[in-house]
Design goal:
Elements (H helix, E strand, L loop, with lengths): L14 H13 L5 H7 L4 H13 L3 E6 L2 E6 L1 H18 L1
Antiparallel strand pairs: 1-2
């Protein structure tokens, strides 16, 4: 068969982890969709599917201003994100 190179793929994130990454990015001041896509390392389609889910759950708000669509994290979203970060921290200790 010859020599094969083994490639180690990075573990995929769950949908929940992607959503938490999006919440984190927006909480850190990134409110425009394109910026959110790059900083949360998602595709355009995945970002929009998750934004719809986060808005439906009450974790984010969507609004339109003169320059386009902007997003904000609600108090409920901030609370969930902090709980998740605390859980990850406790699990890694």
């Amino acid at each position: 068969m010859g020599q094969q190179q083994m490639r180690h793929a990075a573990p995929r994130r769950s949908a929940f982890e992607v959503r938490m990454d999006i919440l984190k990015v927006v909480t850190n001041g990134c409110t425009r969709p394109t910026q959110m896509m790059y900083r949360s390392n998602t595709s355009w389609i995945i970002l929009h599917k998750n934004l719809e889910s986060l808005i439906a759950a009450g974790f984010m708000l969507q609004s339109v201003d003169s320059s386009g669509t902007v997003y904000a994290v609600t108090d409920r979203g901030i609370s969930v994100m902090h709980d998740y970060q605390n859980l990850v921290h406790l699990a890694s200790a």
